[in-house]
Amino acid sequence: MAASAKRRRGWRKRLGALARFTGALVIVGGLYSVFSPSLYAQEAEDNAIDSEVVKGQELYDTSCISCHGDDGEGIEGRGPSLIGVGSAAVEFQVNTGRMPMAAQGAQAPDNYPQFTEEEAAWIGAYIEYLGGGASVPDDLAALVEHADVGEGGDLYRVNCSSCHGYAGGGGALSSGAEAPALEGVSDEEIYQAMLTGPQNMPVFADNELTPEQKADIIAYVQYVVNDDKDPGGVFTLGRYGPSTEGLAIFLVGMTALLLTTLWIAGKS
Amino acid sequence: MKRRKGTSDSLLTKAGGELDDRFKLAAPVRILFNKVFPDHWSFLLGEIALFSFILLLLSGTFLALFFEPSMVEVTYNGAYVPLQGIEMSRAYESSLDLSFEVRGGLFMRQMHHWATLLFMASILIHMLRIFFTGAFRAPRETNWMIGIILFWVGFFEGFFGYSLPDDGLSGTGLRIMEGMTASVPFIGPWASAALFRGQFPGTDVISMIYIIHVFIFPLILLALITVHIGLVFAQKHTQWPGPGRTEHNVIGFRMFPNYVMKQVGFMLFIWGVIAAMAGLFQINPIWLFGPYEVSVVSSASQPDFYVMYLDGLIRLFPAWEFRIPPYFTLPAVFWPAIAGMGLSVLLPLVYPALERRFTKDRAHHNLLQRPRDNPGRTSLGVMVVVFWVVGAVSGGNDVFAEKFDISLNAMTWAGRIGIVVLPIIAYYVTYRICLGLQQHDREVLAHGLETGILMRDPNGRFYEVHQPLAEPDEHGHTQIEYNGWVVPKKMNRVGALPPTDRGFFKSIEEPSDNGGAARDEIESGKH
């Protein structure tokens, strides 16, 4: 008795599970068919977002496709796939003039931008449309405003200074690559760079540095690199530390004093 | 009231007499005042080091009033915003307070650091002068060796000072020193543990270094400088050869009053240059480096320039590790750091003895040599300078690579090849230049000065008229002995007297009116 009751309960359980599963499939499928984007339908509707994607695609097809390939799939040996990199990466690379790249090299150097910020946003929208990806939070300005500069300094020294230097002056990497100087960069640029890891930079995703921590770092960089009044000198010697100080002592100090020795010995 | 008799002169005499009666000063002071200094600019280079050392003592005393060599952990709450709330050692905190909250503190700190760089730079330049002119030869080898030791004591004194503030850069420097110490076979790890009282960084190293930096090494420097200058007095100055100058006299100015005035002026000028640099150029901005943490290393972490060539050697040396299984490892850093530094101490120390041995020249020399007259030594010196410069540039090769857009790998390989090849090229080129200069001197002595007047003889040959310096023989040659000093190369440099036109940077001689009138006449066509 006990065994047959158990079996019957098992059957009921399986039937119930099947019913729930079918129900879930129907709901998901139904929702999908209602909300799923259809390229043809969107082109017909031509709303604002889609027009950005289309304009972005037009720019992509004339300026990016030769290296990054059809639909951002990438071309072996020329350019990586852009599916999933997101708009933050696109806007960083395009707005700093790193992309489109003039020639293949160790690293794309920053340059005069080839597109307006609006156009960069269109390309970003297109890449986002292809495969999603990271983007800058809308409330970045508020985050930076409430950031902790001291905490940012601590994070900067641990995570950034080994390449960009204590004072954000930049530094050399191997084989001709470099970590650029941070002078005059905007909050958005720093955020985009940390989020997407352009060129040789590692990615600092949100699970490594939270958006708040990123904002702390931005606040510190802006304080030290761009707002600091540089106590202790009219000339900072580029803040490269002892190497330029050594040059200065010979070019300025020793030179002035050698001329003095000539003058003093000459005045006999 | 009784009027005082006599002039101020006789008063001075009287005061002097009273002092001499009590302290027996006349004889030593007379020797001091009558000490003769040669009047060539190259004799003033050592003074730059001496006067910057005095400034180092003064500014260092000021800094010591406010600096605390303590490794106690504190939370910063001072004036510099980006470090507020950060945990750091008391040593770093007091360095920050010294910079931002003590009146004039940052200026004094910067002055102390610039004076250090000037001290080391002027020692190097002074050393080059002594080397290239052969001033280290007998009887002055001891003073040369004291000078070399002075350089190395200054080297470590500077390195310890760089380590004291306990900022990110100091800690990085100490870490490298720890690695170098530990690389010495067998005793290395023990020596490193003794230095840091256990594991790096420990909590004792700053207070130990502090006593060395503010007391022991300054005392050694002071003692050595005193002996160094005392020996110059005892052995008398060397001098350049020239009319009336022999191995047995010194021609120049007496200490008093002429030379004292010059020296005081020079000292104030040196201090002025250091103060100006301290006010204008930021140096060692420790607040940017942050407190030292073992996990933090910045790019462009360099030592001060006098250590930089060693850093460069470490960067250039290939990673050749030597192992004897099962336990023994000799790390690659041993060769450039420990062997390299050992040789840099040893070779200069024994150089005078080596030169004596190879040239078999055991005579006493009070007259200097012009660098061109000893091409072997001069070329050797230039070779060392080139080696040093390639090493120092390689010590900053990441900064060079980044700022001049050169691949860092290319910089490293250029340094590796350059440090071997360039000194050899420099030796050859310098040797040829020395011989060329010698030959030109001899040519002027034999054929006379080039006058710039070109003539053409009847069969069409062009030649330049030479002004012989003495009565020529039947071949048109003059027989004048080279005396080891400047040979006139221009017509207006001929004669025993120095050039008559005044002015330092450019001549301020006025053309005579007479000549002007004659020129006007010629130009107006009256002749």
Automatic annotation (TrEMBL), chain A:
Reaction equations catalysed: a quinol + 2 Fe(III)-[cytochrome c](out) = a quinone + 2 Fe(II)-[cytochrome c](out) + 2 H(+)(out)
Any one annotated GO CC term: plasma membrane
Domain of life: Bacteria
Enzyme class, UniProt record, top EC level: translocase
Gene3D superfamilies recorded: Cytochrome c-like domain (1.10.760.10)
Topology of this chain in the membrane: Multi-pass membrane protein
Transmembrane segments: 21-40, 246-265
Any one GO molecular-function label of the UniProt entry: iron ion binding
Occurrences of domain Cytochrome c (ranges): 51-131, 147-225
Annotated residues for binding of heme c 1: C64, C67, H68
Cellular localization per UniProt: Cell membrane
Name listed for the protein in its UniProt record: Cytochrome bc1 complex cytochrome c subunit
Taxonomic path: Bacteria, Bacillati, Actinomycetota, Actinomycetes, Glycomycetales
Automatic annotation (TrEMBL), chain B:
Membrane topology: Multi-pass membrane protein
GO terms of biological process kind: respiratory electron transport chain
Annotated keywords: Cell membrane, Electron transport, Heme, Iron, Membrane, Metal-binding, Respiratory chain, Translocase, Transmembrane, Transmembrane helix, Transport
Keyword check for Membrane: yes
Residue runs in coiled coils: none
MF (Gene Ontology): metal ion binding; oxidoreductase activity; quinol-cytochrome-c reductase activity
Domain of life: Bacteria
Primary location: membrane
PANTHER family linked: CYTOCHROME B
Enzyme class: translocase
Region (Disordered): 502-527
Family matches, as InterPro entries: Cyt_b/b6_N, Cytb/b6-like_sf, Di-haem_cyt_TM
Composition-biased stretches (Basic and acidic residues): 518-527
Co-factor(s): heme
Domain Cytochrome b/b6 N-terminal region profile: 15-241
Cellular compartments per GO CC: plasma membrane
Leader sequence residues: none
Catalytic activity as recorded in UniProt: a quinol + 2 Fe(III)-[cytochrome c](out) = a quinone + 2 Fe(II)-[cytochrome c](out) + 2 H(+)(out)
Annotated EC: 7.1.1.8
Protein name: Cytochrome bc1 complex cytochrome b subunit
Location of the protein in the cell: Cell membrane
